[in-house]
Amino acid sequence: MTNAQLTLSTPRRSHAAADSAGPGRTLAVTASATLLVLAVFSSGVTTVGDTARSVHAGVSGQTWALSAMSLGLAAALLTVGALADDLGRRRVLVWSSGLLAMTSALAALAPSMGVFVVARALQGAAGAGVIAASLAMIGHAFREGHSRTHATGVWGAALGAGIAIGPLAAAGLADVLDWRSGYWAQAIAAALLIPAAASLGESRSAEPRPLDLPGALTLGTGMALITGGFVEGRTNWSSSTTIALLAAGALLLGSFVLHERRSRAPMLDLHLFRNPSFVASLSGALFTGVAIIGLMSYSPSLYQRGLGMSVLGSATVLLAWSATSVVVALGARRLPAALRSHVRLAIGLALAAVGEVALTGLGVGSSWPRLVPGLLLAGVGSGLANAALGRLALESVPRERAGMGSGANNTARYIGGAAGVALVVVVVSAAGGSAGPGALMDGWNAATLVCAALCALGALVAVACRPRTDAT
Fold it and tell me: Phi/psi of residue 6, each to 5°?
């Protein structure tokens, strides 16, 4: 152990104590917590214009406002997931809920775009703790088999429900009051989550590891720089700032890998990459972020600028995708048990690809019903993929490292989401999206095809990641 590593000396709880609240209550609280974080994450999509006008910010400020929470999530997820395993998953959930309440209030009070962006990034860091600890607690409360399939399906449905509720709630509150009211509502909801989380039983690894401080710093900073590079790249990929951010981030991530290889107590065990299920978990989450979350995050802007929809109207249309994903994720437990997680993931990504192809061919005269078939198909695919990814995140790592598995899976999802939005913006701009509604729709049609191709590629990768036990 090096001097830079700090040992976490926390009392252990028995597995019986961890389950004292009951699996059903654990699932209800953790799924609600996940739903809240995703609602916070997606809420800014529909109100960012009002926010920018209120604090007198330009296009660059809006871009950072939309991406800041992704930056916080990507930078913190793996680190807080590993901490949750060692420090206590309930403890991390409670602390993170408190931080989410405070940072949401800071966003509501923000006097400038700079303060707002910082608040959103901190919301992301807090949300990382909530998400990673929640899925890890589900993994501890539910053993392998039908009960875990059901629980991870509920968790996957919470992801979709949060994405559905966030934009609608923010748009509705902005219409009645102002954009700040949505962040006050988030602060109140996060504060209410604190006692609910505190009422659950504690769980942690039976053999806590020392805090890998160098690993946490290099990974978190590297992820933040890479995400920042994607954000800056949306306006100019050749700028010195974009290149410097991406290069510095890649250098730090390389340093992280080298450090983890030498560490006797690594935060991320690199040997896990020999496990096909772990590779499927990370690659599936990455493709989901790039090709589904990235495209759908951009779609409200497209609906407003290209099709002339209102803020509330664009959020409502997006429900065809997000609400469908909720229903399908909840029903995933009814699929045959013999259908392995990597196959479910492949089917989900393939259906999402078909749905995205159906979203092509739009023009300035297109109406909202034209969007519904593609959004429904993409929603079915998203629901299957979300349920499968939650299950893969838990079954691909040792049970005592569930927080780390959750953190790694969701890190891939949100770094992919940041890259996906950047990709869509680049494709739309390359097709002349800034020249008017007609050119914008041409750019959208090109972007949907690119994302559909990436979904199809992700499905092939998932099929290739067949667990070795399948071959016996």
Answer: -110, 130
